[in-house]
Amino acid sequence: MKNLIKENLSILENRIKSACLYSERDPKEVKVLLSTKTVEVERIQLAVDAGYSLIGENKVKEAEGKFEVLKPQNCIWHMIGHLQTNKVKYVLKYADLIQSIDRMRLVEKLQNRCEYDNRNIDIFIQVNTSYEHSKFGIPPEKALEFIKQVSKYPRLHIKGLMTIGVLSSKNDKVRDCFKRLKEIQLKALELQLPNSSFNELSMGMSNDLELAIAEGSTMIRVGTAIFGKRPYPDSYYWNEVNKE
Ligand SMILES: *Cc1c(COP(=O)(O)O)cnc(C)c1O
Question: With 90 as the cut, is the pLDDT of residue 4 above it?
Fold first, then answer.
């Protein structure tokens, strides 16, 4: 098991290097976030031992348990799954950054809870660049207006944007998703909004990280390519059931 994860990580690093070489980028510009849904702490620990410290979880309950065990490792924890407003106070206990900000009701709840806790929180704005109904995120056309609104909430610091590329064998279609996110980043930067920096583009997963890197990704979220196949299909984590 240990060797398998190590080997997977070294294959991953080679993929990142090749993709960066191809798009004339510095591999240091691309952070790897371990996407650890359904992965047990013992296996996460192996990746942490190999030098990785950025962890992304999708569900608050699952993350809470793992955080308790892995706390001494001083990892950085990102929330990358759909966030229900009634989970806001719990997510703030472990998350350093929330990547899935996609609606005003959530923004208001977060701001209120941060005021109550007297703290701030870093966030990414999630954009639905594939226009799939099954995916969460703000539609690209509405993203800039949404971002302007969010920047008025001083406890929330916008550090970047996040998207999930369309699941397609057509590279052009996948790439278009990442291009859309990059375009929104450039427009958002021009606005020079308060409480925001927009340096990070969280895009690219096991199957499409090369395309995302070519379009400017600064953070790839990788699960399967490191830890192997998951027991549940992604629809279990991404579907509409919990949608508010
Ligand atoms: C599961 C998940 C990933 C990782 O997907 P893989 O294809 O296993 O690399 C990335 N981002 C989000 C939001 C996820 O839910």
Answer: yes
Residue range of the domain that includes 181? 2-228
Q: Would 243 be classed as within a structural domain?
A: no
Q: What CATH number corresponds to the domain at position 64? A: 3.20.20.10
Tens digit of pLDDT for each residue in 191-229?
999 999 999 999 999 999 999 999 999 999 999 999 999
**Cα–Cα–Cα angle for 14, 16, 21, rounded to 5 degrees:** 95
Atom of ligand 1 nearest to the CA of 206: 9
Q: How many angstroms does the Cα of residue 163 sit away from the middle of ligand 1?
A: 11
Total domains in the fold of the chain: 1
Distance, CA 221 to ligand 1 centroid (Å)? 6
Domain-embedded: residue 178: yes
Is any ligand 1 atom within 6 A of the Cβ of residue 221? yes
Atom of ligand 1 nearest to the CA of 225: 9
Q: What pLDDT, on the 0 to 100 scale, is given for residue 135?
A: 84
**Contact (CB, 8 A) for 220 and 209:** yes
Q: Over the stretch 44-100, which tens digit does the pLDDT of each residue have?
A: 999 999 999 999 999 999 999 999 999 999 999 999 999 999 999 999 999 999 999
Kindly state whether residue 244 falls inside one of the protein's structural domains: no
Classify residue 147: in a domain, yes or no. yes
Cα 152 to Cα 243: distance, rounded to the nearest angstrom: 25
Q: For 98-141, how does the pLDDT look when each residue is reduced to its tens digit (9 = 90+)?
A: 999 999 999 999 999 999 999 999 999 999 999 998 889 999 99
Q: How far is the CA of 239 from the centre of ligand 1 (A)?
A: 13
CA-to-CA distance for 2 and 79, rounded, in angstroms?
26
Q: How far is the CA of 213 from the centre of ligand 1 (A)?
A: 16
Q: Quick check: CB of 83 below 6 Å from ligand 1?
A: no
Nearest alpha-carbon partner for 12 in 25, 40, 31, 26: 31
